[in-house]
């Protein structure tokens, strides 16, 4: 089975060469689509002369969700991998994710960035993730461990059928909610995760939490009876 890997990128010039080096290790059957979402740092210059990847350039920042949809739209394969380009999760995990996806008979796969019983570090970001995840489970009557994880593997036609609307970070919970609404089984799997700080380039802000919470509620209200 062939795969298309979609990675949205925004102002990752400091680490982009490291990401590109890591991507070289992937199977050549994996189509790699990098979506530059209006970067104004060194990112466009680095991506300019790449021949072995498909590059989409947004001339202004339209948001992670919109960037992902643009990437999926041109994907050539019917199995897509969604992944962030910030190196918080290494792309070396992708072959293992594919194995688990195929073992799961091509039902959607999503990542878990921490183990179920892992102690919560005293960090606002970590508490925010815990609260949002708990809120999602309460609203949608589910038992997920990490609905905000950026790592997902699913079929392109299923992704298209979700009719996603989110333009920002709320794309993650919209995907999860719409899969739940369709009664589609989602397999969670642990991924190795190393969170970076805002000084290191972390993009998700506290204000994004309100948009994410709103999306969780909206998708519950739109659930078909």
Written description of the protein model:
This protein is α/β, with parallel strands linked by helices. The protein has a single domain (3-221), classed as Spore Coat Polysaccharide Biosynthesis Protein SpsA, Chain A. 36% of the residues lie in helices and 16% in strands. The chain has a seven-stranded mixed β-sheet, with helices on both faces. Helix 5 (124-140) packs parallel to helix 8 and helix 7 runs parallel beside helix 8 (208-221). It is globular and about 45 Å long. It starts with a strand and ends with a helix.
Key words describing this protein structure:
seven-stranded mixed beta sheet; 7 strands; alpha/beta; Spore Coat Polysaccharide Biosynthesis Protein SpsA, Chain A; 225 residues; 8 helices
Q: What is the percent of helical residues?
A: 25-40%
Number of strands: 7
Specify Rg, calculated over alpha carbons: 17 Å
> Main sheet?
7 strands, mixed
User: End-to-end span in angstroms?
Assistant: 35 Å
Strand content: 15-25%
- The CATH architecture designation is Alpha-Beta Complex
Uncertain stretches of 5 or more adjacent residues: none
């Amino acid at each position: 089975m062939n795969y298309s890997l979609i990675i949205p990128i925004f102002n990752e010039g400091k680490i982009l060469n490291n990401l590109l080096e890591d991507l070289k290790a992937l199977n050549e059957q994996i189509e790699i689509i990098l979506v530059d979402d209006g970067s104004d740092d060194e990112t466009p210059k680095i991506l300019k002369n790449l021949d072995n990847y498909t590059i989409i350039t947004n001339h202004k920042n339209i948001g992670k969700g919109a960037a992902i949809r643009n990437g999926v739209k041109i994907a050539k394969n019917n199995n897509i991998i969604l992944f962030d380009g910030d190196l918080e999760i290494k792309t070396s995990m992708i072959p293992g994710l594919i194995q688990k996806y195929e073992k799961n008979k091509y039902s959607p796969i999503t990542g878990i960035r921490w183990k179920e019983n892992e102690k919560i570090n005293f960090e606002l970001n970590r508490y925010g993730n815990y609260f949002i995840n708990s809120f999602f489970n309460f609203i949608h009557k589910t038992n997920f461990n990490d609905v905000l994880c950026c790592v997902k593997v699913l079929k392109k036609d299923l992704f298209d059928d979700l009719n996603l609307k989110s333009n920002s970070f709320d794309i993650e919970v919209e995907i999860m909610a719409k899969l739940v609404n369709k009664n589609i089984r989602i397999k969670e799997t642990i991924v190795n995760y190393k969170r970076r700080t805002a000084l290191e380039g972390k993009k998700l802000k506290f204000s994004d939490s309100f948009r994410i919470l709103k999306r969780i509620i909206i998708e519950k209200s739109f659930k078909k009876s």
